[in-house]
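Table 4 source record.
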Amino acid sequence: MIAALALIAMPTSEAMDFEGPVASIAKCDRTAVTNTVAAATTRHSDFLLASYQEQRAIAVARVELAERRRVLHAKEAKVDTEQGLTLVAESLDDRAQALADQRALDQAEQDMMAYFRTQYLRQCSGKAS
């Protein structure tokens, strides 16, 4: 349950429509290409901020988990159980993996946008839009 709530907190961006930029590049439609690049830049900026915030939250939660484990193993308190801490650790691993997946998708989108920019420049350089 905790993992599901944490994953909801990390915004997932809509899948990038790559057919639109391909068609715009084929027509050398500068306005459409510029709008696509601007939208991708905005999405990437939003993702970087959310990604940082989620990574920071995961790091803080890992420190808290380590302290709870220390307390449990030192028998200073009987608040947590090994099973409960294992569930928390699994939740953190799920969050970290979801974040890694989002980063991989973001990197793939950035790679595609760089490819599209290159294709546009090669194909449309010197042509009037």
